[in-house]
Amino acid sequence: MKRYRKNCSGFTLVEVLVAIAVIAVLMGLLLSAVQKVREAATRLQCQNNLKQLGLASQNYHSSHGVLPMGITPIIARDSFRYSTWLTHLLPFIEQDPLWNETIHAYGVQPRNPFSDAHVGMRTVVKLFTCPSDSRLVRPHATHGQVYAALTSYQGVSGTAYLHADGVYYNDSLTKLTDITDGTSNTLAFGERPPSADFYYGWWYASGLYGKQGGTAVLGVRELRAPNYLFTPGCQEGPYSFSPGNISNQCDLFHFWSLHDGGANFAFSDGAVRFMRYAADSVMPALATRAGGDVVASLN
User: Fold this and answer.
1) Band of the pLDDT at 240, cuts 50, 70, 90?
2) Of 84, 69, 219, 88, which Cα lies nearest the Cα of 157?
């Protein structure tokens, strides 16, 4: 009796290699799509944060007749020296317990907001952080034995710290009526990730007392002051609205974000827009509250 060998079907090496190549391409496309969806989601969440902060600042103005100080100076009118505009928004973003802790801490230690009594200095407030920056989910140790929680957002002080021609700056008491360029045409705050060494970007208090830009407020043509700490090799400026890198210490001197192509900004009327880096030329006009500048289009 003859025996017949049954033919076994299978794949050749070439077919296997082709299949692997196709799967690799599909995985690459899928990963790219997932990354784009994730980036769109984080950008949207970041915009939502700024919208809530914009609403909080409007409510603060309704209660106090002025917007919060960008940074409260050493000789404080309200005994919250060195505190930032974000600190004063706490009661308006449903952070009353933390605000009460802040009041208590300033009662115990009014001169040093970096001391252990000031719990807020080490408390992460999710609304103050952009989800694109994974560093901000916890506080960080930095120079001077300071342990600080950080923020992705800076108040727009105008063009540079020397001029204080914007909305939020050292000892500012800006009223909406002071913004004669129009609240819909004037930037209030925008994105700037904390510096590489985590010394610049504290939300609770300003380590440099507001005398220089980049601590809680920032100009769109910011300058590096001669006595600026921990910035060796950084140019004097002026700096411009352009891409940055979290490992570059000098990028603390300009607005930028971890989003592709630009950064989110809140305007003084509460509106939020994604500004592309190509809009750098109009940023000085948008940053000043009473410069008399006219911006034809933001697109």
Assistant:
1) very high
2) 219
* pTM of the predicted model as reported, rounded to 2 decimal places: 0.86
Exposed, middle or buried by CB within 10 Å (0-12, 13-18, 19+), for 281? exposed
Identify the CA nearest to 82 among candidates 230, 208, 201, 253. Answer: 208
Across the chain, what does the average pLDDT equal?
Answer: 89
What are the tokens at 127?
């609304």
In the chain, the number of structural domains is 1
Cβ–Cβ under 8 Å, residues 266 and 249: no
**In-domain check, residue 23:** no
Of 124, 253, 126, residue with least CA distance to 245: 253
Contact assessment for residue 264 and residue 189, using Cβ atoms and an 8 Å cutoff: no
Q: Within 10 Å of residue 28's Cβ, how many Cβ atoms?
A: 10
Question: Model confidence over 135-182: pLDDT tens digits?
Answer: 999 999 999 889 999 999 999 999 999 999 999 999 899 999 999 999
In a domain, 102, yes or no: yes
Q: What is the mean pLDDT of residues 233-248?
A: 96
In a domain, 264, yes or no: yes
Q: What Rg, from alpha-carbon coordinates, does the chain have?
A: 24
- Does the residue 16 lie in any domain? no
More confident residue, 75 or 297: 75
Where in the sequence is the domain holding 109, given as residue range(s)?
36-287
The token pair at 146 is 């300071």
Are 197 and 148 a contacting pair, CB within 8 Å? Answer: no
